[in-house]
Amino acid sequence: MRIVVLAGGIGGARFLRGLKRAVPDADVTVIGNTGDDIHLHGLKVCPDLDTVMYTLGGGINEEQGWGRADETFHVKEELAAYGVGPDWFTLGDRDFATHIVRTQMIGAGYPLSAVTEALCDRWKPGVRLIPMTDDRVETHVVVELDGERRAVHFQEYWVRLRASVPARAVVPIGAEQAKPAPGVLEAVAEADVILFPPSNPVVSIGTILAVPGIREAVAGAGAPVVGLSPIVGDAPVRGMADKVLAAIGVEATAAAVAEHYGPELLDGWLVDTVDAAAVERVEAAGIRCRAVPLMMTDVEAAAAMAREALALAEEVRGA
Ligand code: FO1
């Protein structure tokens, strides 16, 4: 079975680990969000690609959900001693090596998709991980800061400001001019199932869909498209989905997120059992919906969610 997953960071990575447990022999292609990417210290950092790669490759810091396990921070300390920031974004020594290799390869002329493949040669994530695009896309968030409107990099909004200031708009800079990376459209066209994990619908999956051609390919794919709600009981399971949903005028509920994607994209939608009352509203929007447990408390719980998503895809296919 060929499965395509559009993934952001922690939620996407943990879901993928469950999917691998549920269907170990499936051929899984992950289209990763690169809108969170940031250039720091002359290095290109790709948080979502790395979170997927480290999580599936066994190198992730499990408590944090991002960055490397058994990490040290000597480089960061030395930079700070020189007065070089930013002090609000933490790169560990082991993680630095990934960004050095990536930046060196890009400097030598390799596209990000080829670099990601090379990094995955080491980590063996057991999936084919492709960035949504080889072009530079950077998500900026328009915030209200000290009475003024200002656009900040997504990482500054999320990590430095901790999403504590109102977000007025989310802009994936460069997305309109970007092209899908090689293999993206082919994987979508050849998929048997397409899944939206419980990743952020605006800054993760929304950014991937903003690359011209990807939304159209998903909407026009022969395969059933099934998503899992990142909102449980009217609050995001993790992260700031509620804040960025507000910025685009979508309420932070499981049903509203399904309607936001719409029946053009989604054939099926899973909500948590606490949101069972939303099933009727989602089905009224033309999207088949089921209520199942959606808390990824461990790998087995994530695997159970993946099985439910695949079962719903089968149901939709048979309908
Ligand atoms: N998240 C934080 O909350 N603080 C950090 O300092 C931080 C650094 C960081 C470095 C590398 C990396 O791959 C991820 C990192 N993250 C950090 C996570 C990241 O900000 C976000 O969770 C994702 O971009 C959202 O998917």
UniProtKB/TrEMBL annotation:
PANTHER family on file: 2-PHOSPHO-L-LACTATE TRANSFERASE (PTHR43007:SF1)
The UniProt catalytic activity note for this protein reads: enolpyruvoyl-2-diphospho-5'-guanosine + 7,8-didemethyl-8-hydroxy-5-deazariboflavin = dehydro coenzyme F420-0 + GMP + H(+)
- Provide the E.C. number(s) assigned to this enzyme: 2.7.8.28
Family classification: Belongs to the CofD family.
Alphabetical list of InterPro entries matching this protein: CofD, CofD-like_dom_sf, FbiA/CofD
Keyword Acetylation appears in the UniProt entry: no
Protein name (database record): Phosphoenolpyruvate transferase
This protein's pathway:
Cofactor biosynthesis; coenzyme F420 biosynthesis
Tell me, how does this one assemble?
Answer: Homodimer.
Q: Which residues bind 7,8-didemethyl-8-hydroxy-5-deazariboflavin?
A: 50
Which Pfam families has this protein been placed in? CofD (PF01933)
* Keywords associated with the record: Magnesium, Transferase
Q: Does the keyword Transmembrane apply?
A: no
Q: Which domain of life is it from?
A: Bacteria
- Give the cofactors, semicolon-separated: Mg(2+)
Purpose of the protein: Catalyzes the transfer of the phosphoenolpyruvate moiety from enoylpyruvoyl-2-diphospho-5'-guanosine (EPPG) to 7,8-didemethyl-8-hydroxy-5-deazariboflavin (FO) with the formation of dehydro coenzyme F420-0 and GMP.
Which GO MF terms are attached to this record? Answer: transferase activity
